[in-house]
Amino acid sequence: MLRHTRGAPAGIQRQLQRLWVDAKRMAEGEGQPTLTAQGISPVWQMDAAKKSSVYTDVGIPLDIMAGRDMWAYPVFTMSVNLFANIRFGLRYLPMAQGISIAGTPTVIENTIAADGTGTVIPKRPEWLTLEGWRVAANQSQLQRDDFTNIANMQLEVYRDGASDLDPHPGNLYLQGLAIVYEAFV
Predict the structure, then answer these.
(1) CA torsion angle for 162, 163, 169, 173 (degrees, to 10)?
(2) Quick one: pLDDT at residue 12?
(3) Residue 141 in domain
(4) For the residues of the chain, what is the DSSP string, one character each?
(5) Angle in degrees, CA 178, 179, 181, rounded to 5
(6) Number of alpha carbons in the 13 Å side-chain half-sphere of residue 74
(7) Which of 32, 37, 17 is nearest to 174 (CA)?
(8) Does 6 reside within a domain?
(9) What residues contact residue 98 under an 8 Å CB cut-off, 6+ apart?
(10) Domain range for 68
(11) pLDDT band for position 19 (50/70/90)?
């Protein structure tokens, strides 16, 4: 039996979806990260000794369950493959019709374990939570099948290499950011 959940009509099922934001959709932020390539794929190189960031805008998917949390995690490789922690963070600001619906950006950080094997895809406990009420401050702006309202988030993705919580000596190569959300089926 399906329960009626906030934001979902009775009888509607939900599932997790992933929105991928690749490096070529990001712009240089603070700390002078360098857009380079691994093979033919663009990546942002972030220095091990300082805070480096990139910026991007992400459209809120139309099938999202309004008011629910979303989760984000970076996908990256390291110039040195070893077991050590990386300090990652996000600053995000939800927007509707090009106007901020929150007073100040929300900042969330977490330490991610580089596993020494190459491409790092963090485990779920390391994902960063974008709280649903902060993303959709006014649920009426995110009604299902409403194509008249444009909702998006401005994101700053950063590695805080200067932090004591980031002892990894290698440069980081950010391939992209995955955003996971609950969607209507």
Answers:
(1) -80
(2) 67
(3) yes
(4) -PPP-TTS-TT--EEEEEEEEEGGG-EE-TT--EEEEETTEEEEEE-TTSEEEEEEEEEPPTTB-TT--EEEEEEEEESS-SEEEEEEEEEEEEEETTEESSSS-EEEEEEEEEESSSSB---GGGSEEE-HHHH-SSGGGG-TT--S--EEEEEEEEEETTSTT----S-EEEEEEEEEEEEE-
(5) 145
(6) 30
(7) 37
(8) no
(9) 150
(10) 18-184
(11) very high
With respect to residue 66, please indicate whether it lies within any of the assigned structural domains.
yes
Please check whether residue 13 lies inside any domain of the structure. Answer: no
Q: What is the pLDDT of residue 2?
A: 36
Cα torsion for 35, 37, 38, 39, to the nearest 10°? 170
Give 12's contacts (C-beta < 8 A, 6+ positions apart).
2, 184, 185
Write down the mean pLDDT value for the chain: 83
Residues 6+ apart with CB under 8 A from 99: none
Average pLDDT, stretch 157-184? Answer: 94
Count: domains in the chain: 1
Higher pLDDT among residues 61 and 15, named by residue: 15
CATH number at residue 50: 2.60.120.260
CA-wise closest residue to 172 among 47, 33, 20, 15:
47
